[in-house]
Amino acid sequence: MSPGLWGPIAVAAGLALVAVLILAPDRAHLPRSRRRPSTAAEDTVLAGAAATATSLVARAMRRREGRLSVALDLAGVRMRPQDFVFLVLVAALVLAAMGLLVGGFWLMLLFAALTPLFASLWLRIRTSSRRKKFGDQLDDTLQLLAGNLRAGHSLMQALAGVAREADDPTASELGRIVNETRVGRPLGLALEEASVRMENQDFHWVSQAIAINRQVGGNLADVLEGVGKTIRERNEIRRHVRALSADGRLSGIILVSLPIVVAGFLGLTNPGYIGLLFRHPIGIVAVVIAVILLLIGSFWMSRVVRIKF
Question: Which of 55, 212, 282, 305 is the one with CA 20 to 30 A from 252?
């Protein structure tokens, strides 16, 4: 190994250690003030350096902090935007050092450039998964809500009870609705905004049904049970369509994963052959073009097998 590589590797390892120690959640069950009431908590040098770094990141991203905060909220990531950006920067430096060690300068640039893209993709995947889970839980949520209403609870009490009993993300979304309503926000508006956040047409129907019922009166439990029955029928049709389109999805997964598997196999069996792509500028350009075309193809195939109704 070249002696000149030890410097970037040491810097990347140090930044990774800072990220792990500072950004990791505190797992202590009792706060430090209760365990040592006579001892004042003092920040370590490492914590101070990390806090300074995250504050600098926060100043640099003031204009885009709102968008990133919304993206983290939708993905269910309980982290400040500056902490997330700092963690992505540390990951980019670590992967860049690994790329420099394995494939040279061009691979270092490739890893550094792809790290923010993969971080954004990870947020989108988490958001999509969270929204899908919310839709899958909606049938059980309506049954719990109707049961609480039949037990004599008010609508707000029923929402708060379901928020305590349900799993995430339903619990967090209903809890947010209850908290917003308690501070003066109209219930109909809070429900509608939740349906927009989750991009769930079924919950939009639920919010409309609750709003109409609050205006004209009637048995809200029966209304919610009727809406729940409609949602169950739609889910059955959706599952049937998904089963019919499983062949196309499987074909897309195979076509997308095949180049990655072949490249990994060649990297293990014949590193010199595949390593030429990462050491020569033309090879780096070919790899970048291949990755871009692979992403475009995977996006196109996902849209072909996605049926909306």
Answer: 282
